[in-house]
Prior knowledge:
This protein has helices at about 5-15, 20-35, 35-60, 60-65, 70-90, 110-120, 125-130, 145-180, 185-200. By secondary structure, it is mostly helical.
Amino acid sequence: MTPELWLAYTTTLVIYMSTPGPSHLLMLSNSLSSGFPRSIATAAGDLTANTVQIVVASLGLVSLIAGSREVFIYIKWAGVAYLVFLGVSLIRRQLDAQLATRNSPQSRGELYWQGFVTSASNPKAIIFFAALFPQFVNPQSPPVAQFAVLGMTFLLVDGAFLLGYGHFANWVSDRFDRYVGQHMNRVSGVLLIIAALLLGLRDIDTAVAG
């Protein structure tokens, strides 16, 4: 893979991820409700699911995946229901107005699985990777090494965006906590419900990662 080809691929990813997807909104929500350090577990869960999807796509199992439309629909709507449940739970949570949200954070394990489930709820991401990678592969070079570079680049770019969103949410929370601290759970819950709507509105035939 030439440097020019890699740069074109990276630029494509940056442009694509500039619009936040369900996983990015989940990161915003968890950083607001549990603090940035703990929300890193959410990013780890998301990237773990992406890694599995990239490996499956690289192994050429796309034809098997493409024939499982009904399974995809069930998985997607299970993910939508899960995000809505989390969002409603946060909105309904009663907190003392003087008690900051992050004093009762979720465990890192819970945050990790939220990230994993949200990303894994879009199994058509495997099709996305399988369609994207060949466009940036040099047929004259060994494909395995190139797929590894493409996969690692995706994870690094996605990870940077996730951490950026999480850090931004933490910055906002630090500066406005004393004014709207008691409403942070509600804000986080609304973000999760929006993430669920984004996931649900994605056409199962055109869904992509993120």
